[in-house]
Amino acid sequence: MVKRTQFMYLLWLLFMIAFSTNAKANDPELDRMFELSLEKLMQLEVSTPSDTIQKLEDAPGTILVITKKQIEERGYVNLLDLLQDLPGVDVNQKSVEEWFNQVAIRGNVGNNNFIIMQDGVRINSPTGENIPISDNFPLYHAKQVEVAFGPVSSVYGADAFAGVINVITEKPEDIDGIRMSVTGGSDDYYYSYLNFGKQLTPWLSLKLGGHWNSSQNPDLSKTYDSAFQNVDVLSTDGSLFRSANMRESFTAPTSSYSFYLDLDIYKKLTFGITRSFLSHPTTVGVKPEKTIFSKDAEWDSLIETYNAKFKSDFTSSLVGETNLNFSQYTTLPATKFTNNFANFNAYKYARGRKWSLDQKMEYKVSKKHKVTAGLTLEAFNSIPKTTDLPSEYDSDKEAGDQGLFHIGTNNTLPIQFFEVDYQNYGLFIESRSKWNDWFSSFAGFRFDYDSRFDGTFNPRVGVIFKPKKSTILKLMYAEAFLAPAPSLAYAFFGTFKGTQDGMGRYESDFFKLPNPDLGPEKTRTIDINLTHKINKNFIIKADAYYTVIDDLIADVDQGSSTFIDGGIIASSGIFDNVGQAKIFGADLIVERKYDWENKTLNLWGSYSWVDGTLEEPNGITSDLPIVAKNKIKAGFTFTYLSDYFITPKFIWVGRTSHFRTNRSEKVSSYALLNLHMGIRNIFENNIAWRNMSAFLSIKILADVKYFNAGGGSNLFGTSPRDPRRFFFGIRKVF
Amino acid sequence: MKQAGLFSRIFQRVRDNQALENNFSSMPRRQRLERLDCIIFAGLLLILQAFPAHAESDNSREYTIKAGFIYNFTKFIQWPEVVQESIENQGLKFCIAGEDPFGKALDGFSKALEENNRDLVITKGVSPKQSATCHILFIDSSVSGQLEQYLDNVKEKPTLVISDIPGFGEKGVAINFVIRRNKTRFEINPYAVKKSGIKISSELLKLGILVGKEEKR
User: Fold this and answer.
1) Mind listing the pLDDT tens digit for each residue in A599-620?
2) Which residues of chain A register pLDDT less than 70?
3) d(Cα A521, Cα A162) in Å, to the nearest integer?
4) What is the pLDDT of residues B155-213, one digit of tens each?
5) What pLDDT band is residue B217 in, cutting at 50, 70 and 90?
6) Is some CB atom of chain A closer than 8 A to the CB atom of B34?
């Protein structure tokens, strides 16, 4: 239960943002404009965040927009940094081995529960794997990031379950040159990027860029010495694997890189490529008595997309867009576990591919009515995440030709690899109508037929009221589905003990086994959203939602099994659609801007409340995992002469449930203060060195020890987090 | 029982129901540091609350900036002597062809000129024929289709034609605003300027993007 004192104090912080004294209607910007020289005027940015947000006010659903300026001034390096500051979003970092960190949007936990796109092209796993969200989703090239909350399967199909995130990159003519940046920081942190864009000819434009990053990361054994004191490492049968006095040093390095390219011809035909890679330790969040810390204990994720887009203007009222896309997610062969469950040396591999053809048409029936329709044809091929492998998967061989044997079976029991082919066909239609200045409506649906299960039907309907120009009220009902990822339908992992029973069968205590009949999860949401502009610089938003998730995928015990020929499994389990979740929540957001001579102050604050229950097999009901009931996020950016800025960001997160273990135990609440500051145009008057910026970031300013929610048999339920870190970077525009 | 004060309650010990974390951290120090975060942030807000705030005007920022540019242009431009005298005596005639995108920004333009002992005479919605008497003519996108007619009427007259429509610099507009990297830039067609008899200082030419080509005789 939240301490009322702390809670009221923090709400007071939020309301301080909202209400100010001494507001005076004046036009200082006009007066300043005519005092500035031509050179100074040429440095002013033309469009501001409110311009962009204006266009999305009439869009269905709850949408937040984070602009390039905000990304720069708040110090967001990657998508996870940005998500951490958003209302209704829980971020638990470095708390689970496979996907590194855990994101929950409006109580809906799962990094695969929402779609991540770049310029409308999906860039997270095409086959729905739960993947890390970190430096593999950089923001150096973003013009803005649009986050749509809630189900959007009516347009995007599978996996637009909790929301859709679209990173919109800058146009080549806006980049108009080269941008480079280099950052160094604590614990051997290095980050660099290069971004190029140019209108090469009146009909040809090109943009491309890439980033590279590595970090040794903090030595958590020094910050949390009692958690990481040297202890014996024991195998699953209790035998000693390594004694405490022989323990290795703590290590947990990460590295990443990305690349993107867009070639646009006559603004009609676009070819695009994206590629992103992340390596993170598979020891993250694992208790030291269960794992060996090693630099090669890493999970390597690679995502690639290749896209061709063609826009056609059939008439002034009818436009079309055709998309041809190939995307692939790979858990690279070097991926390795060094925990006791994997016998301290086991490899993994996975690959998911999608070929798709999308055709979308938009027809303006009249000035007030617009209809959008689309057809999708998708073909998938997946090698689901393998069981523990004794050596690296050979990607030059077919899955069935690997010739590998289960660990602990004396090279006797061959490993079965699965390869799955399936298709999805989707059809959607949506109409939007602006009946008059104060009333709009939208209604649509999407039907998907997936060859693995029955078809799904996902409608979305809503109304938008604008009783006055300053107030917008939206009501929406939507449904969505989360397609069963092959990694869950064909989940296959466990270990053999190296012993045999009386019948000569190799013995295992536990194996997760495939369930090819696994179906989709289904969500239904009611969403109410209110935006009120007290004036152009003072906006209050509130939203409330109720979500029901049916056919939730959960663990089901199956008892003993002889699934593997020559083996006897004492206890087995599968993933099945047996759970249900009910989630209700609300967010309150305040944005305020102040202007006075040479200075601006942008304040933002949000309070989020989310509650609900998770019902699992055997009638067990628990709190929502990885979700804090109460969260406050606030910050401000103070700018002087447009060139100097400082942004403190404050986060308070209430008590959070663990992921898999007993959810009656909670991770404590915590408060964090992060600071980001910078100077633009350091050498303004020097032709060679102008357009150079510098910035300093301090994360966890007060060096608080705090914990994120984890939870699993090998994991910390309360996972230690990084201590204070410093980052310094420079950026040059050519 | 008397309730403890706010600060006393803030620093009151939290009930210890977090046994797991006790294994890993020093609880009282952690809570003090968390509260320090709150206090630092609140303190910063308090300091900034002390400054008087001003509400931003409703004018379009883009056109306020462009108005600032146009005011600055007048410092780098010289009309023929006769016209210059007319400007000194009767004011600078600023005309808008089509809809007025500047709004209240023109008030600032006018005030800035007044401080330099010049009047600004604003005429909105001028026709092509009426534009001939303007010292500065701004062509809005709402009449972009009539560009040729406006240019014909000001041909070889001391009228500085300004616009912000893509490609109009090449088509004969003397100064055309463009947006690059979200910042305002301007194209200068020196041939169009020369034909009008207006002189532009080299300082202004250096800052602009030169476009256009000389018409064949």
Assistant:
1) 899 999 999 999 999 988 777 8
2) 1-31, 47-58, 660-664, 684-688, 711-713
3) 12
4) 889 999 999 988 889 889 999 998 877 788 999 999 999 889 999 999 899 999 898 87
5) very low
6) yes
Instruction: Report yes or no: A579 and A554 within 8 Å, Cβ to Cβ.
Output: yes
Cβ atoms of A10 and B40 within 8 Å: the answer is no
Residue B31 lies in a domain: yes
Count of structural domains, chain B = 2
Q: Is the pLDDT of residue B82 over 90?
A: no
Domain check: are B118 and B196 in the same one? yes
Give a yes or no: residue B183 inside a domain. Answer: yes
Q: Which two tokens stand for residue A712?
A: 């699993």
What is the spatial distance between Cα A545 and Cα A547, in angstroms, rounded to a whole number? 7
Same domain, yes or no: B83 and B15: no
Nearest chain A residue to B61, by CA:
A46
Query: What is residue B67's three-state secondary structure?
Result: helix
Give the gap in angstroms from C-alpha A423 to the nearest C-alpha of chain B: 43
Name the closest residue on chain B to residue A3, using Cα atoms. Answer: B14
Is the confidence at residue B5, as pLDDT, over 80? no
All domains of chain A in start order, with CATH:
4-733 (2.40.170.20)
How far is Cα A213 from Cα A203, in angstroms, rounded to an integer?
35
DSSP string, A459-505: EEEEEEEEEETTEEEEEEEEEEEEPPPHHHHT--EEE--S-B-TTSP
Could you give the ipTM of this predicted complex? 0.72
A285 reaches B (C-beta below 8 A): no
Q: Rounded to whole angstroms, how far apart are CA atoms A458 and A271? A: 31
CB A709 within 8 A of CB A101: no
Task: Characterise A188 by phi-psi region: left (phi > 0), alpha (psi -120 to 50), beta (else).
Answer: left
CB contact under 8 A, B20 and A536: no
